[in-house]
């Protein structure tokens, strides 16, 4: 398959390069009758990859993030005559345990310690945080390395053990309501209202490629936001737009969102 033709509609260079890798691996499946996996992809990347793979008639694929509702997933591609039940496991799972009574440990701490071992972000799936441990979905190839070499997180000694897929425990995310008014449903206005920053600062976040809507990079300040959209601002966190209401008497729009506590 021609990767230039299949990605002609994609403008974001980083996304295009990731889709090139997907196409190269799909072509390898066709040529070598082998099974190939992508790296971990976010939902927007998965959507684009699936759209491309649907153009292949002789390839089947499986999207797997390790548990229902996962954010990051790997796509396994295989010849059409393979049975999915015969595929090798592309994911493995670890549990990182420690005594964190005197210091809170966050997602960034676990991720930073893992990446500090020289592992690429694309090899790591979801990191599920619990009070005294976390569970991590990882590429099967790096599980043993992590189990042997991850010994500290945020200056705390940790123990790592491999667990089964069925042992993954999801934690309900805590959100609080954010109610505000905005002058417009443009992304720069919405960011300003949700995160309590100036319009000028919100534009800086957009210009520096730190803003995503539904995991898609945003580079236009005038892009409209809709109810149900998930906005991510690097350094500020995520917010889900619940509702954009009718204008107030002063002509501003009522906006409701969910933001992490």
Describe the structure.
With 261 residues, the chain is α+β, with helices and mostly antiparallel strands. It has 3 domains: 3-86, Ribosomal Protein S8, Chain: A, domain 1 (2-Layer Sandwich); 91-167, RRM (RNA recognition motif) domain (Alpha-Beta Plaits, 2-Layer Sandwich), CATH 3.30.70.330; 175-260, Structural Genomics Hypothetical 15.5 Kd Protein In mrcA-pckA Intergenic Region, Chain A. Helices cover 26% and strands 31% of the residues. It has 7 helices and 14 strands. Strands 9-14-13-12-10-11 form a 6-stranded antiparallel sheet, covered by helices on one side. Strand 13 and strand 14 form a beta hairpin. Helix 6 (187-195) packs across helix 7 (199-207). The protein is globular, with a radius of gyration of 21 Å. The relative contact order is 0.11.
Distance between the termini: 46 Å
What is the domain tally? 3
Strand content: 25-35%
Average of the residue pLDDT scores = 92
- Compressed to H and E, one letter per element, the order equals HHEHEEEHEEHEEEHHEEEEE
Instruction: Provide the CATH top-level class of the largest domain.
Output: Alpha Beta
CATH topology (fold) name of the largest domain:
Structural Genomics Hypothetical 15.5 Kd Protein In mrcA-pckA Intergenic Region, Chain A
Query: Biggest sheet: strands, sense, closure?
Result: 6 strands, antiparallel
How are strands sequenced across the largest beta sheet? 9-14-13-12-10-11
CATH structural architecture of the largest domain: Roll
Work out the number of β strands: 14
Radius of gyration: 21 Å
Quick one: overall form?
globular
């Amino acid at each position: 398959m021609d990767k230039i033709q299949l990605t002609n509609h994609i403008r974001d260079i980083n996304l295009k390069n990731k889709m090139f890798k997907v196409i190269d691996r799909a072509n390898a499946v066709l040529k070598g009758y082998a099974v190939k996996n992508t790296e971990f992809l976010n939902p927007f990347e998965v959507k684009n990859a699936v759209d491309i793979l649907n153009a292949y008639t002789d390839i089947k694929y499986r999207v797997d993030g390790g548990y229902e509702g996962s954010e990051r997933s790997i796509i396994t591609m295989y010849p059409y005559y393979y049975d999915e039940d015969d595929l090798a496991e592309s994911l493995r799972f670890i549990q990182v345990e420690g005594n964190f009574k005197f210091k809170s440990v966050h997602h960034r701490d676990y991720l930073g310690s893992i990446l500090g071992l020289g592992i690429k972000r694309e090899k790591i799936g979801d990191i599920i945080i619990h009070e005294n441990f976390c569970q991590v979905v990882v590429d099967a190839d790096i599980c043993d390395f992590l189990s042997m070499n991850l010994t500290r997180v945020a200056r705390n000694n940790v123990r790592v053990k491999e667990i089964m897929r069925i042992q993954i425990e999801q934690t309900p995310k805590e959100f609080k309501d954010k109610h505000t008014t905005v002058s417009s449903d443009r992304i720069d206005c919405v960011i300003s209202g949700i995160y309590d920053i100036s319009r000028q600062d919100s534009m800086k976040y957009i210009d520096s490629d730190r803003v995503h809507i539904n995991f898609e990079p945003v580079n236009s300040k005038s892009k409209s936001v809709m109810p149900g959209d998930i906005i991510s601002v690097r350094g500020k966190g995520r917010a889900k737009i619940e509702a954009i209401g009718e204008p107030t008497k002063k002509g501003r729009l009522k906006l409701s969102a969910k933001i992490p506590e």
